[in-house]
């Protein structure tokens, strides 16, 4: 499903945060990427989500070599991947209601007619009432907003879901609820999962296997090794 081969990426070519990292996720597989804060795992997740172009290395999705990121990627590749970030308030437009937030990917891909059905289907699945759907981000809790962000990630029925520290800011009950939503979706769709985090217990319970991120030298050059 996903193959990252010797990826080097960052925000300064002279000092990349990810250097020569390789990672594979098979179709239908759940892989956890475990590492400390600041090691570069979120940057790698953005590369995998087609949101950040790497400086070096290759990425293959569904057997096709990726040649463009962000708006340069073909629509069928962009919509194959859904992503949920750690901080929902940084990834949600504060002007939109939760209903509009969930529907955003459908509108941007010309599927407006699917909005009522998909929002009605996903809202109860993630635990959002009709009243909450009409609120804007400032009027809901972090957990409620993250529920909407998960629904947004699922609205296009992705074949790969990337959860980048999705539950780091949530309490235990909300974490369990959102993990259950992801697993229900995967069971019904056969989607693969890349779950990024620093909670070893959560990742090892959630995923089929966990990959550990090792810092091998004093310059904090990371490399992924199967754990």
Automatic annotation (TrEMBL):
The keyword Transport applies. Residues 2-227 form the ABC transporter domain. SMART domains: AAA. Coiled coil: none annotated. InterPro entries: AAA+_ATPase (IPR003593), ABC_transp_ATP-bind (IPR050319), ABC_transporter-like_ATP-bd (IPR003439), P-loop_NTPase (IPR027417). PROSITE patterns: ABC_TRANSPORTER_2. It holds the Pfam family ABC_tran. Transmembrane segments: none annotated. One of its GO terms (molecular function) is ATP binding. The keyword ATP-binding applies. Keywords: ATP-binding, Nucleotide-binding, Transport. PANTHER family: ATPASE COMPONENT OF ABC-TYPE TRANSPORT SYSTEM (PTHR43776:SF5), TRANSPORT ATP-BINDING PROTEIN (PTHR43776). This is ABC transporter ATP-binding protein. It comes from Streptomyces badius.
């Amino acid at each position: 499903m996903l193959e990252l081969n010797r990826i080097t990426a960052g925000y300064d070519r002279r000092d990349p945060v990810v250097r020569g990292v390789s990672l594979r996720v098979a179709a239908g597989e759940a892989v956890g990427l475990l590492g400390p804060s600041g090691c570069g795992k979120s940057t790698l997740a953005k590369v995998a989500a087609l949101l950040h172009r790497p400086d070096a290395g290759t990425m293959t999705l569904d057997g096709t070599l990726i040649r463009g990121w962000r708006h340069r990627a073909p629509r069928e590749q962009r919509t194959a991947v859904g992503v949920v970030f750690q901080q929902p308030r940084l990834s949600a437009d504060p002007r939109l209601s939760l209903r509009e937030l969930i529907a955003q990917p459908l509108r941007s891909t010309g599927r407006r007619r699917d909005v009522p059905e998909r929002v009605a289907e996903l809202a109860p699945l993630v635990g959002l009432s009709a009243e909450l759907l009409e609120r804007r981000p400032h009027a809901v809790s972090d957990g409620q907003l993250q529920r909407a962000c998960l629904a947004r990630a699922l609205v296009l029925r992705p074949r790969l879901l990337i959860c980048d520290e999705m539950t780091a800011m949530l309490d235990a009950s909300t974490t369990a609820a959102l993990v259950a939503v992801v697993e229900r979706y995967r069971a019904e769709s056969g989607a693969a999962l890349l779950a990024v985090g620093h909670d070893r217990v959560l990742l090892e319970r959630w995923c089929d296997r966990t990959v550990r991120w090792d810092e091998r030298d004093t310059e904090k050059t990371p490399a992924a090794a199967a754990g």
